[in-house]
Design goal:
The protein is built from nine helices and 13 strands. The protein starts with 17 loop residues before the first strand and ends in a 12-residue tail after the last helix. The chain has helices at 35-43, 59-64, 72-75, 103-109, 144-154, 200-210, 223-227, 253-262, 313-327, and strands spanning 18-21, 26-30, 82-88, 94-98, 118-125, 131-139, 162-170, 185-193, 213-216, 219-222, 240-248, 272-277, 299-307. With 339 residues, it is of the alpha+beta class. Strands 6, 7, 8, 9, 10, 11, 12 and 13 form an eight-stranded antiparallel beta sheet that branches. A five-stranded antiparallel beta sheet has the order 1-2-5-3-4.
Length: 339
């Protein structure tokens, strides 16, 4: 939806200012700001709000489509933390959208995507999150089913400060991964504990106990560091992209079997599949309160096909389609507009 034939595309990328009001725990971001911009400004005050898993993502785009991220179980989606927005509509009017002004527009821009006008600034509620305890862990493919079944049960009533997700991932050449395992495929789990740091090790212990961990880079870190940890895998403008997505109410045995069949065949290090949890605080907003209506779903799956060489397009697009065809009948109708 970022380009259009016979129309106008407006580039907001120079509008990247972020103003923080720490006393009221609010921040206003201009429409071109990225989450790296936003997190840098709010982290100075020990504050954050839900902001995806890659810091080069735009604040506006993520929020207008809903906004799934590490902090969603604890504080809700990005759009649930949107207090107001300045929107320029197609007829040239500059409007404020909030609960009290233009509430119909405010309803639509919280999950309906960027189709209702140009969001030139967005005001967010912030939360006391500074450092988190987490990072990626890598499990053997033979243990993937055990980890996925554990995740299904654990996340249902895990403390809401616990965020994170399983992911199919080819091991990149990182120093914490044994060199002889670089290039091999694993089931990774990226954890984020946003509660008290001294409780982090205990909060992640169930994950460490479920199966042997081959490699990990887990510990205390600033929240912006985790939010940007995967940026290098997704250089803007350098990759081919073909994505599909599902909302999932129950991660059934059949659904896990489909993931176990297709996940290990992830084609390149840039491609991945994430199964995000969207319960907890996300469920405390009614399905008709915002345009993000999938409040009964417990998971959002993204099959993110990304690779550098256009010569691989046909084969890698087919991988995404086959994966989707296997999981869609076990998922809800509709998908996350941002994916």
């Amino acid at each position: 939806f970022g380009t259009v034939d016979d129309g106008v595309v407006i580039d907001l990328s120079a509008m990247r200012g972020v103003r923080v009001d720490p006393a009221n725990r609010r921040a206003r971001a201009e429409g071109g700001a990225t989450w790296a911009d936003f997190n840098a400004a709010t982290h100075e005050h020990g504050l954050a709000t839900t902001g995806g898993v890659v810091s080069t993502t735009g604040v506006g785009g993520l929020t207008l489509g809903g906004g799934i991220g590490y902090l969603a179980r604890g504080v809700g989606l990005s759009c649930d933390n949107l207090v107001s927005a300045e929107v320029v509509t197609a007829d040239g009017r500059s409007l404020v959208a909030s609960e009290h002004e233009n509430p119909d527009l405010f309803w639509a821009i919280r999950g309906g995507g960027g189709n209702f006008g140009v969001a030139t600034s967005l005001e967010f509620q912030l939360h006391p999150v500074s450092d988190v305890y987490g990072g990626p862990m890598f499990f053997e493919l033979d243990d993937a089913g055990t980890v996925l079944r554990f995740y299904r049960e654990f996340i249902a009533d895990a403390p809401e400060q616990f965020g994170g997700f399983p992911a199919w991932q080819i091991a990149p050449p990182l120093p914490f991964i044994p060199e002889e395992r670089h290039g091999e495929t694993f089931l990774a789990f990226v954890a984020c504990w946003a509660g008290p740091i001294d409780q982090g090790e205990r909060a992640l212990k169930p994950l460490h106990d479920v199966a042997p961990v081959v490699a990990e880079h887990v510990g205390p870190m600033p929240y912006p560091a985790l939010n940007s940890a995967f940026d290098a895998l997704y250089p803007p403008g350098a990759l081919q992209h073909y994505w599909k997505a599902n909302f999932v109410t129950e991660l059934t045995d059949e659904a896990i079997a489909a993931h176990l069949e297709h996940g290990p065949t992830v084609p390149v290090v840039n491609s991945t599949v994430h199964i995000y949890p969207i319960n907890g605080a996300c469920h405390r907003v009614s399905s008709d309160a915002t345009a993000f209506a999938f409040r009964d779903a417990n998971f959002a799956t993204v099959i993110a096909g990304m690779w550098p060489d256009p010569a691989d397009n046909e084969a890698n697009i087919q991988w995404v389609r086959d994966y989707y065809d296997a999981t869609a009948p076990l998922s809800e109708a509709g998908g996350y507009v941002n994916f």
